[in-house]
Structure formats: C-alpha cells, structure tokens
Amino acid sequence: MMKVMHIVIFFLLGLGLMFLSATAYIFFHIRPFQNGLETQGAVIGFVKRRVKHGKAYAPLVRFVARNGQEVTITGIINSEPPAYQIGQIVTVAYPLHQPEQARIKGKGKLFLCLPSVWQLFC
After folding, report:
1. Contacts (Cβ under 8 Å, ≥6 apart) of 102
2. Is the pTM of this model over 0.70?
3. Which among 3, 4, 10, 89 is placed 20 to 30 Å from 97, CA to CA?
4. How do residues 83-104 score in pLDDT, each as one tens digit?
5. Are 44 and 62 in contact (CB under 8 A)?
C-alpha cells in the first residue's frame, strides 16, 4: 500500500512540475510582447524541420520594423502541411527595441505551445 502511495505522490509531483514549467515557459515568452509593437509581414518561404514523425514546416516572415529595419523571422510553430501560404500577410508582434525577437501573432494559437512543452517531458 505504501508503494502505491509513493507512486501516486511522485506522479502528482511530476504532473505539477510539468504544469509549472509550462506556465513559466508561456509567461516568459509572452511577457516581452505586452508593451511591444505590431505590424504586418509577409510569408516568404518555409524552413523544413525534422520532427519525431517526419518533417514539418515553419514559416519565414519578412517585415519592416518601426525603425525602418527589414527583419526576417522564423515562426515557432511547425506544421505539416504548412499552416501558411507564401505571400500570405500575417500580423507580427515584437518587443519595442528587439524586432528580431518578433513572433507571428495568431488567434487561439497559444494552446499550440503546450504540446511543445509536453514533448520536452516525453
């Protein structure tokens, strides 16, 4: 009986640490954008990435920052088939003085970060 109790306790601690890690990851990746800027960018291509079960594509997006600097970023969400089309206009958000840290802004895509965090532990 004690052995089962230890297993349950370790399982719950592991689950709690996983959710704490996911929360910290999301917090520290969203916080810099709270007082940032938004602009429009265009998908100019894709970066092919290997994933556990084959390949996936992350969008390459080019935009012009407020300071006039032309910036190209790679999206953080990989998908197969690609989630965007070349030439598609997307909204990007970036910290005021760091346009190279821009992220593609999507509606409801925050939940897609959680599977990425989950994969860290599996």
Report:
1. 41, 61, 63, 71, 73, 92, 93, 94
2. no
3. 89
4. 899 999 999 988 888 899 888 8
5. yes
